[in-house]
Amino acid sequence: MKNDKIDKLKENYNNIEIPKELDDVINDAFNESENKKLENNKKDWRRNMKNMKKWYASAAAVGLIIVSVNASSTFAKSLENIPVIGNIIRVVNFNNYRIDKDGMDVSISLPEVSSDSKDLEYKLNKEFEKEGKEAYKKYEAEVEKLEKEGKTTHKSAEMWTESIAENAKTVSVAIYNTETEASAATSRKIYNIDKKDKTILTLEGMFGNNDYVDVLSKNILSQMKERTKKDSNDVYFVDNTFKIKKDQPFYINDKGELVICFDEYEVAPGSAGLVEFVIPSNIVSKLMK
Predict the structure, then answer these.
(1) Quick one: pLDDT at residue 27?
(2) Residue 53 — pLDDT band, cuts 50, 70, 90?
(3) Containing structural domain, residue 181
């Protein structure tokens, strides 16, 4: 009996005729609600897109993506294979700058390091950051010029770091930069670190007020002539007035010998590659007295 009453009430409820005016009010209210949701969604979408554009614009302006070791367990795992350089500095991050536009393909990857010596850590990181940003700005300016002129290019550039030498007293790290257009050219900037003092060595600091520029230049010129004498294809773009720069790149090899370095095309044809000269120990010893 009770169930019959309930069924009857359901039937009466379902048969209630909703007045058209009320139906219109309900539909209008529903449509207004949906329109508000849609408009709010549109506003949220526009806001999100605007923020994304701001983000990408700022990222493009700086051209910098910092890949943290902690960002990826796989990436962090791969860094475990990177040795501590000279037992004094460790790679903790890589700062990557990228350009791929108008035929310009640039990839710059320079490390961020940590060290027990905070002064050394600061100096190296500032140097790496400066070199990376300066290179990026240079290539970015080239792209802007191409766009203004309505031109494209076929040029690539890659910048990276390597530990190039180590001995009991020093470790040497180099920033390499290879540009390829019609041909390839490689340059490098070298940082020599004293393991004991945890300082960055310079030729001027090592030799003090001694006239090391003239002494080293004379020896290198002599070596150039000797090489050409042994091989006529081993030629150099220098004459008897040749002088190295006061801050000429160098490193200390695994035997503790001073090696003076030149970039491709700096003193010889590109086919010679990066040119190096080992300075005899007796000359170095005299300069350090």
Answers:
(1) 53
(2) very low
(3) 64-201
Query: Among 10-24, 108-122, 254-268, which is the least confidently predicted range?
Result: 10-24
Q: In this predicted model, what pLDDT tens digit does every residue of 27-50 receive, in sequence order? A: 554 455 455 445 544 444 443 443
On whether both 51 and 93 belong to a single domain, the answer is: no
DSSP 198: T
Whole-structure pTM over 0.85, yes or no?
no
**Domain match, 50 and 68 both:** no
| Residue that is last in its domain, among 59, 91, 106 | 59
| CA quadruple 261, 267, 273, 275: dihedral sign | negative
Query: What is the DSSP annotation of 43-76?
Result: HHHHHHHHHHHHHHHHHHHHTEEEEEGGG-HHHH
Cα–Cα distance, 156 to 65 (Å, whole number)? 19
CB 200 within 8 A of CB 123: yes
Q: Which of 201, 223, 258 is the C-terminal boundary of a domain?
A: 201
Whether 150 and 212 map to the same domain: the answer is: no
